[in-house]
Amino acid sequence: MLLLIVHIWRRADKRALMLFESWKRDEFARWQTWIQEEANARADVQAEARYRDWQRREEQKVRQDAIRRSQSVIRGKITEHLIPWFSEFSYHPSDARFLGSPVDFIVFDGLSEGCLKEIVIVEVKTGSGALSPRERSVARIIEEGKIRFEVIRKE
Description:
single chain; 2 helices; mainly alpha; 59% helix
């Protein structure tokens, strides 16, 4: 009888140990999953915060750059309109007619004095601006002599 009790006790002990090991593995896996999910959630929150901060900084940079460019464009437009009164403009301001596009001015040199000497197409560039494709095509056509005078009569 004692042998039977010892045998049952050992089997119960092995079963209890086996159940404990199984519970320990399952609990460890559950905790590991929970910890990983919690770490991922916190990482997402931190990443989102960093992204928002980066986005705010970059948006400020983009806005400042847009303001700077806008000021530059406005300065250029004002200069285009005022250039006939600058010393660099070698024609009488009254002889200049502002177009703005595709070229800035047509100058009727000498017209204000009653003696037209020549007609000059003027493009004003501020800074280091290069001619646009449209401006280059106008310059090419003029250089090729493909320019004429036409009268349209409306009756």
